[in-house]
Amino acid sequence: MNFIESIRVKDGRLCNLEAHVRRSSDALMHHFGISGELPFCELYNSACVGTEEDCKGLYKLRVVYGREVVSVSLAPYKEPVSLSLKIVECNHIDYSFKYEDRTVFADLLKYKGNCDDILIVKDGLVTDTSYGNIVYELDGELFTPASPLLKGTRREYMLQEGLLKERNLQIGELHRSSAFYMINAMLNMLPVTLLR
Fold this sequence. Notes:
The structure is a single chain. The chain has helices spanning 17-32, 40-48, 103-109, 153-160, and strands at 3-10, 13-14, 58-65, 69-76, 83-89, 117-122, 125-129, 133-138, 141-144, 165-166, 179-183, 190-195. It is of the alpha+beta class. The chain folds into 2 domains: 3-76, Aminotransferase class 4, branched-chain amino acid transferase, N-terminal domain (D-amino Acid Aminotransferase, Chain A, domain 1); 83-195, D-amino Acid Aminotransferase, subunit A, domain 2 (D-amino Acid Aminotransferase, Chain A, domain 2), CATH 3.20.10.10. The protein has an 8-stranded mixed β-sheet with strand order 7-6-5-12-11-8-9-10. Strands 2-1-3-4 form a 4-stranded antiparallel β-sheet. The radius of gyration is 17 Å and the shape is globular. The protein starts with a strand and ends with a strand. The mean pLDDT is 94.
């Protein structure tokens, strides 16, 4: 069983590193009984060797790990401008850890049609997209579902900073929201359009 951490790297700085350390340490303890932290800074430095301009700009550091580090990759990253989401219902999905095996998402993505991604509804509640947490605007405030599939690192940061509040959103309430955004470790408030 392997897990993934995808870390935003901007001009050589690993963003929101504490949240990635905390989540990966939780996964190691929960699944393997291993106490400790992954050496993300060392892994980044080894991946950065030989790249142009010492990794200036925006990059994605991807670390696959199990009982030990399986692979490390570093690639330039370009942020999308916007995304369209197809609403898909799935009541049996469980993705409480960031598993490398994403078969459950691959199966659901077959229903996305011409959209870029999916918005997953579980037991009548809006949860996440296949690659990030959802944020919605309601009465001038920003919220994120209190019961996401995965507690993402940017989501946790924004909650701690008071930029978001937790509130479950029922599928029947979607029309009340004035705007939707996707967030993840690489994206901050990417506007999304919902299609039923």
